[in-house]
Amino acid sequence: MIILIEMSFRYVIIVLFAGQLFAQKISGRILTDKEGPVSDARIGVENENVGDITDKTGSYTLDITNVAKSKVVKVEISGYEPFRMNLSDFLVLPDHTILLKNKSIEIPNIEVISKKYVMKNFGTKNSKRAYGGYNSDKPERLFREYAIKVKNNKRIKIKNINISLAYFSFEQPAAIIFDVQDSINDLPGESQVNETLKLTFTKDDIKNNTLSLDVSDKNIWIDQDFFVSFRVSEDFKGELYFGGNIFAFSKNTYYRSYFGEWQKYSSGEPSINVDVLMEK
Predict the structure, then answer these.
(1) Over 85-127, what HEC string results?
(2) Contact, 132 vs 201, CB < 8 A?
(3) What is the pLDDT of residues 192-234, one digit of tens each?
(4) CA-based end-to-end distance of the chain
(5) What is the dihedral of CA 121, 123, 128, 131, to 10 degrees?
(6) For position 246, what pLDDT does the model report?
(7) Can you give the pLDDT at residue 251?
(8) Cα separation of 75 and 46, whole Å?
(9) 270 with 144: CB under 8 angstroms?
(10) How far apart are CA 115 and CA 221, in angstroms?
(11) Which stretches of 185-233 are assigned E, i.e. beta strand?
């Protein structure tokens, strides 16, 4: 009887130790090459639904429990060169502070005055039915990113990015981070902007159930298919649901969490659209 109790006790100790052995978290900061904090930067493991988003001090915590050490750690945020490192190499670093370098995208010098342009709108407008969204009571959904593909074969300049909202309820100012990416293998690829496209807003900024971000001063010129993606800031408190055409056959709508694989929606299209200036 005594032997059985002793064996059970040892078994419990071993199980607890094993659980601690496989539970692993990494904390650090993400800074610019001038050592200023980078907020809203996304850090995660490639093709895995694990990660974090940095706060105002650039701090993060990455839970890599049960993640294969052969995977790749990634950091991406508009305006900076992406960071990539094998997890096995990242783990042995004495300090997990990551320094990001500014990224410069060459913007062609286009003389708008000498050419004729017309305003166009690409995307979906519908605020009557909720398609998807965010609820801070379900924190795992706050890290979801949505993207739509815009088909294009002319040179255009993006003027505004718009989202139609079906329902919202929040008290504190909220923020949405947008991005414009090229299309690689029919999936969102590399960011085409030199800075973070962040819209901070209150209820008063929502006009006719629509949120708009003016990017006309960002010189975002595109001459091919591209994606527009968006996500809420991780400190969002409340509910924010965007509308969409839930009955349409989806050809161009994708989503992911952190740096997980992009997944394609089988139906529907979210109500996100862009105002563009198009050459005749």
Answers:
(1) EEHHHHHCCCCCCEEECECCCCCCCCCCCCCCEEEEEEECCCC
(2) no
(3) 998 889 999 999 999 999 999 999 999 999 999 999 999 998 8
(4) 90
(5) -160
(6) 76
(7) 66
(8) 10
(9) no
(10) 15
(11) 187-191, 197-201, 210-214, 221-222, 226-232
Identify each DSSP E strand in 88-186 by its residue range.
98-100, 117-123, 130-135, 144-150, 156-169, 174-184
- Residue 8: predicted pLDDT: 47
Contact call for residues 22 and 66 (beta carbons, < 8 A): yes
What span, in angstroms and rounded, lies between the C-alpha atoms of 278 and 183?
Answer: 19
- Tokens coding 107: 């913007």
Question: 80-120 pLDDT, tens per residue?
Answer: 888 999 999 999 999 999 999 987 766 555 554 557 889 99
Give the integer Cα–Cα distance in Å for 166 and 151: 25
CA 153 from centre of chain: 25
Residues 79-113 as b or e (16 or more Cβ within 10 Å = b): bbeebeeebeebeeeeebebebeebeeeeeeeeee
Q: Which residues partner with 162 through β-bridges? A: 212, 273
Buried b (16+ CB within 10 A) or exposed e, 207-216: eebbbbbebe
Average pLDDT over residues 163-185: 94
* HSE-up (13 A, CA, CB side) for residue 97: 10
Backbone angles phi, psi at 15, to 5 degrees: -65, -45
Predicted confidence band at 248 (pLDDT cuts at 50, 70, 90)?
low
Assign 124 a pLDDT band (cuts: 50, 70, 90).
confident
Task: Supply the DSSP symbol for 266.
Answer: S
**Beta pairing, strands 98-100 & 25-32:** parallel
The token pair that represents 109 in the structure block: 């010098």
176 contacts 163 by C-beta, under 8 angstroms: yes
Whether residue 215 contacts residue 158, with contact meaning beta carbons closer than 8 Å, is answered with yes
